[in-house]
Amino acid sequence: MVNAVEQVRRRLVRASAALDQQNILYAVIGGNAVAAWVATVDEAAVRTTQDVDLLVRRGDLEAVRAALTAAGFVYRHAAGLDLFLDGAGASPRSGVHLAFANEFVKPGEPVANPDVTAATRLGPMNVLNLEALVAIKLTAYRDKDRTHLRDMIEVGLIDAAWVGRVPSVLSPRLKALLDSPGG
Predict the structure, then answer these.
(1) Which side of the chain, N or C, has fewer Cβ within a 10 Å radius?
(2) pLDDT tens for residues 135-168?
(3) How crowded is the C-beta side of 109, counted as CA atoms within 13 Å?
């Protein structure tokens, strides 16, 4: 278990360093972004994740591909997803997955992804700022997204004042989570 968590961390740091080295704008999103923010308050409340999710601009895809390939990742485009495996035989489940800035992940979602400039440097990587991360999680609103939001509520990163800070279309979702933090 410890090895699996450490492999994700190494993959995250390696991918971030490769993009930093090439001056490619990006932001860590997903579970690793939540973990980075939660750790700023309470390291014991950090939840692990199995993959690395990065937000990049679609126009930078070829530069991202070159940088990550040079760092030892293997590019795949499958089922409409752009991802990088950590070696030829690696599982997509544990890869580096890309999301695109200023685009909708799925048709009909209430809010598009933010731009990569909505990032904060936390340690060795650019992490999506808290406001943009909360909006992404509220937009996707899957079970794991609600769990991530509850983690941030639990450590005090998000509170009732946030209902007015998120896009109004997302406010009811946040209010529901705040009203029933235990699920």
Answers:
(1) N
(2) 999 999 999 999 999 999 999 999 999 999 999 9
(3) 18
How does DSSP assign 42-78, residue by residue? -GGG----SSEEEEE-GGGHHHHHHHHHHTT-EEEEE
Beta strand 81-85 with 74-78 is: antiparallel
For 85, phi then psi, to 5°, come to: -90, 150
Domains of the chain: 2-129 (3.30.460.40)
pLDDT surpasses 80 at 116: yes
- DSSP state letter for 125: E
Helix (H, G, I), strand (E, B) or coil at 159: coil
Distance CA 174, CA 172 (A): 5
What pTM value is reported for the model? 0.95
Helix (H, G, I), strand (E, B) or coil at 100: strand
